[in-house]
Write a structure and sequence with these properties.
elongated, Alpha-D-Glucose-1,6-Bisphosphate, Chain A, domain 4, seven-stranded antiparallel beta sheet, 6 helices, Nuclear Transport Factor 2, Chain: A, alpha+beta, six-stranded mixed beta sheet, 29% helix
């Protein structure tokens, strides 16, 4: 395809592993989850790409190249013919594993400057939707993960406390709040043990739903004493590693 001299380029890091991210181009149900209900993709060279936006606008093209999980190229345009006709531009997306997740690089080649400019905000928005949908998929168990983190604070046995944290968190887990500044599992295990001596019988529990955005999870909590009375409340922000484990926790009291 020639004459596509006007380019939109954008990158986004998604808090999920590359295999999880790429399956949104090999599974029509997932493809539709970030484009719109009714969107489909046939993941082979020459396969149809059909997009139906939530507002009813329809677009499409075909797969030119696919190399799972590293790269996909497809043509793109609108059934209305504006600002480019069906298949009238070319989109290349590559996927790279990083410590933070998957680095997605987008290159959209278009025939005119006006068509290019019309897609800048669209891709800014659409890639953000993609990042959220894929991260929510990768971290579907985030609420249960938070519950297990809070349960560790009531575990009296040091070995079981460490095993509990090791099952859900990275070895270099960082924990920060008004009374904590720990680095690594061993430091947090010792800190929890010391807290139990000062506040015996205190139990932490999640309050309400866990709210998630691109691998960051916001969770309310309450701390109850042995008598069942609430002694403190707060909010924890969990930052998750691409493999789903907890990498960092920041806590806010009150």
């Amino acid at each position: 395809m020639t004459g596509l001299d006007h380019v939109v380029e954008r990158t986004v890091t998604i808090a999920a592993r590359r295999a999880t991210v790429f399956r949104y181009f090999t599974d029509s149900e997932r493809f539709a989850a970030w484009w719109g209900t009714g969107s489909t993709i046939d993941p082979r060279p020459g396969g149809a790409v059909r997009i139906r936006y939530p507002n009813g606008v329809e677009a499409g093209g075909e797969v030119v190249e696919i190399a799972s999980p590293e790269r996909i190229v497809f043509t793109f345009g609108y059934e209305s013919g504006q600002p480019v006709p069906t298949g009238g531009s070319r989109v290349t997306m590559t996927f790279e594993e990083t410590a933070a997740g998957t680095l997605v690089r987008l290159r959209h080649e278009l025939p005119t400057a006006a068509a290019r400019d019309a897609h800048v905000q669209g891709w800014r928005y659409q890639l953000a939707v993609f990042a959220n949908v894929a991260a929510l998929d990768a971290h579907a168990g985030a609420a249960a993960l938070a519950d297990r983190f809070f349960a560790v604070w009531a575990e009296r046995d040091e070995a079981r406390r460490r095993a509990g944290l090791a099952a859900i968190a990275t070895e270099d887990l960082a924990f920060r709040d008004a009374h904590s500044c720990t680095a690594g599992l061993d430091d947090l295990v010792a800190h929890v043990g010391a807290s139990q001596r000062f506040l015996p019988g205190l139990v932490l529990a999640r309050q309400g739903e866990a709210r998630q955005c691109q691998g960051t999870v916001l969770v309310g909590w309450a701390a109850k004493g042995p008598d069942g009375a609430v002694k403190a409340r707060g909010t924890n922000v969990f930052e998750l590693a691409p493999d789903g484990r907890i990498a960092r926790v920041t806590g806010f009291w009150g």
